[in-house]
Amino acid sequence: MLTPMTKLQIVGRKGELEHALEELHVLGVAELIEATDERLERHEYDSEHRDELRFLVAEADAVLALLPAGEEPPGTPVSAAVDTVPGAVDTDVLRRQLDELGPALEALTARRESLRDELVVLPRYLEPLQRLLPLIPELADLDDAELDTLRLDTIALVLNTDDDRLVETLRSELAATIGSRFELVSTHVDGGAIGCVVVFPHSVSRDVHRLMGSEHVRQVALPDAFARLSLRGSVLAMEHRLEEVSEDLAATERELIAVVEPHAEQLRNLRAGMAAELDQIHAVELVGATKRTFVTDCWVPTRDVDELRAALLERLGPALVVDEIEMSRHNPETPVLLHNPGWARPFEFFVRFLDIPRAGSIDPTILTALFLPLFFGVMVGDLGYGIILFVAAIAARRRFAERSPFLASFAWVMLLGSAWAIVFGVLFGEVFGDLGKRLFGDWAVWMYRPGADSLEPLLLFAIAIGAAHVVLGVVLGLREAVRFREHRVMLDKLGTLLVLGGLFAIAGLVADRLPAGVMTPAVAAIIVGIVLVTSLHGALGLVMGPLELIGTLGNVLSYLRLAAVGLASAYLAIVANELGSAGPIWMGILIATFFHTLNLALAAFSPMIQALRLHYVEFFSKFVIGGGRPFRPFGQRPEDPTAKSMP
Amino acid sequence: MEAGLIAIGAGLAVGLAALATGMAQARIGAAAMGVIAEKPELTGRAILMVAIPETLVILGFAVAAMTIVLL
Asked: Residue A539 domain-assigned?
């Protein structure tokens, strides 16, 4: 449901503006909007102070972000400190604290970044060398001094290609330049590259390097610490260094936390105070003023108006006036606040995900909460899968109840869906596909879904659900058109309903479910409906009208996916059982478990996507009027009651 | 023989429709990713657009099912 909103105008003495804003910030139920009366003056706030506040808030966030995840997020407000008037928070305290922490944090973060870089860079040298060592065992133990004694030089290269022809080209170029006085070994390394080592006499070193230069072959020099060692010595030293770097990195991160943690609470308080002050500054700029009074307009949920009025009058005395401004319920400027029963609230996310309904229109959350789990259950329709998903959803809800409201909401949606999957599992007689049938015979309460005779009733069931859902959507759309006085839409919906009703009546007649006398009114309804829809589109009506009606019929047929996805899941489960029963029992259990796990993962994902699609494309398109503006109350806390309570 | 031909016909009905759906979704999906990169708030509508051609394969399924049930 959409919470009814009231537009208020608050007028008070100019000197009390800051206290009024502070009280509104404490209450957190009013969205301030710009006062529209052109005769009112505007406040211009000191932009330098505002910029300083923004800078300090960003700095505090950056410092608090150094704490590990799971700590309170940066900027978590502390209720005692957030409702301040502008200028109440001492920016010097925060600046001093940041200055005090700055040098230590800068040194530690620079060290941390350098260690992280080393952790990334060293393996890039290490891996090709490790691969090349076995190819040149004699040379691997010689350091630069020993190679000098032997009058030999080496070059290590990494070619960023896995094409061996490039190595052959390099070999032939070297042969053409220095004859046979070289040894080239190569090996493939991870990431589609080739590592090479070239060994050649010192006397031709200049020719080799000139060749490399002319062919644009770039050598990567080893870091200085490993440059003069033997290849094997370099590898050992790098491996040792990698271990050291990991330990150093962990120690540096511990040190960073140790530096920030003692200051974290105070930083959060100061940061919250400044964020609140920024809020207040923004609010002051929205307020209009005369010589002696301030005037502010705001939107408030109607249920909170009395409480807000009483709180303001108690704080600021009878000199304050709070007036309600008459507005149309359908005014598109009205902010939208969804408010639904606890069991349906997790579904608000799915509605918001598409669009926010416009003020005064229908909130489809409760309908989504009723139908989405039902569609999910029809598609999964398996007692075994349903029970597993149900238990997993309960576990996920417990696990994420505190930590992630979003995941807890999703687990609730899955819980309701899996409950319907259990119900339809009993109706369809499915436990892990045909395993239940193999063990207990045909125990389906309604019909065994994958059975040969079940296809026709299953398709009819899916179309019946589609017809009911689409007709409900069109009826709601008709209701919206009547409320918004949109006559063309009203006639369009009416025409669509007449055509659908006529077609369903003829289908009932063909199936011998309705008497023959229905034919004439059914045909009449179809003709009237087509004429209505066609006439609304003017000159293009002859094309657009029938196309629109065919689209609506396509919407109904689209619900066949309830049968299609369900059957695919059931057949995959049967295949898992067939494969499982083919070999020895231990192998059968392994194979069946693997395929059922795969099917379960698909069952948890695909039906949810399909059910959502049916809502977004087929259902919502018939009646939801989007384009709503979300309600953003001044001084809203993260633990806003609209997001907090869960079933 | 006849059952085999019916099965091939049903398979073609679903398979070709799925191919067409895939081609349409590939184009819409690429455009949708571009939209989401520019305006993440339109993610919901982008997914809706990607989902629209799926009706093709469902209609293919309907034809396949009717082929099996009625023939």
From this structure: no
Decide if A578 is inside a domain.
no
Q: Establish if A489 belongs to a structural domain.
A: no
- The count of C-alpha atoms lying within 13 angstroms of the C-alpha of A417, restricted to the half-sphere facing its C-beta, is 30
Are residues A149 and A181 located together in one domain of the fold? yes
Residue A376 makes CB contacts below 8 A (sequence gap 6+) with A417, A418, A420, A421, A607, A608, A611
Which of B43, B48, B58 has its CB closest to that of A558? Answer: B58
Residues in chain A closer than 8 A to B51 (CB atoms): 609, 613, 616-617
Whether residue A359 contacts residue A323, with contact meaning beta carbons closer than 8 Å, is answered with: no
Measured CA to CA, the distance from residue A198 to residue A531 in angstroms comes to 85
Amino acid occupying residue A55: F
Any idea what the CATH number is for the domain that residue A211 is in?
3.30.70.2750
pLDDT recorded at residue A225: 67
Tokens of A367: 């309908």
pLDDT at A593: 92
From CA A286, how far away is CA A32, in angstroms rounded?
A: 7
A507 to chain B, any CB pair closer than 8 A? The answer is: no
Number of domains present in the structure of chain A: 4
Q: Are A320 and A12 in contact (CB under 8 A)?
A: yes
Give the residue carrying structure tokens 């960003």. Answer: A58
Tell whether A316 and A167 lie within a shared domain: no
What is residue A86's predicted lDDT score, i.e. its pLDDT?
Answer: 54
Please answer whether residues A453 and A447 qualify as being in contact, where contact means their C-beta atoms are separated by less than 8 angstroms: yes
**A/B interface, count of CB pairs below 8 Å:** 44
Any alpha helices (H) in A511-540, and if so which ranges?
Answer: 519-535
State the CATH number of the domain containing residue B42: 1.20.20.10
**B44 vs A355: CB contact, 8 Å cut-off?**
yes
Residue A372: domain span:
339-428
Number of domains within chain B? 1
Q: Note whether residue A597 is domain-resident.
A: no
Contact between chains at B47 and A459 (C-beta distance less than 8 A): no
Which helix or strand (DSSP H or E) is residue A603 part of?
A: helix A585-613
pLDDT mean by block of 10 residues, chain A; 647 residues = 90 86 86 80 74 86 79 47 58 81 86 86 76 69 67 74 82 85 79 77 80 66 64 78 86 87 82 82 83 89 92 86 85 90 92 88 94 96 95 92 82 95 95 90 90 88 95 94 89 93 91 88 93 85 86 92 91 88 86 91 87 92 89 69 39
- Among B48, B62, B69, the residue with its CB nearest the CB of A616 is B48
- Amino acid (1-letter code) at residue A76: T
Cα–Cα nearest to A561, from A465, A448, A440: A465
Residue A617: which of B52, B59, B65 has the nearest Cβ?
Answer: B52
Of the residues A395, A428, A461, the one at which a domain ends: A428
Q: Please indicate, yes or no, whether residues A146 and A18 belong to a single structural domain of this protein.
A: no
The answer to whether residues A328 and A348 belong to one domain is: no
- CB contacts of A459 in chain B (<8 Å) are 62, 65, 69
Whether residues A345 and A416 fall in one domain: yes
Inter-chain CB proximity B58 and A557 less than 8 Å: yes
The span from the CA of A40 to the CA of A18, in Å, is: 18
Containing structural domain, residue B63 = 2-70
SS3 of A381, please?
coil
Put simply, whether B7 touches A (Cβ < 8 Å) is no
Contacts of A456 in chain B (CB under 8 A): 69
- Please indicate, yes or no, whether residues A217 and A155 belong to a single structural domain of this protein: yes
Confidence (pTM): 0.73
- Check whether residue A358 and residue A296 sit in a common domain: no
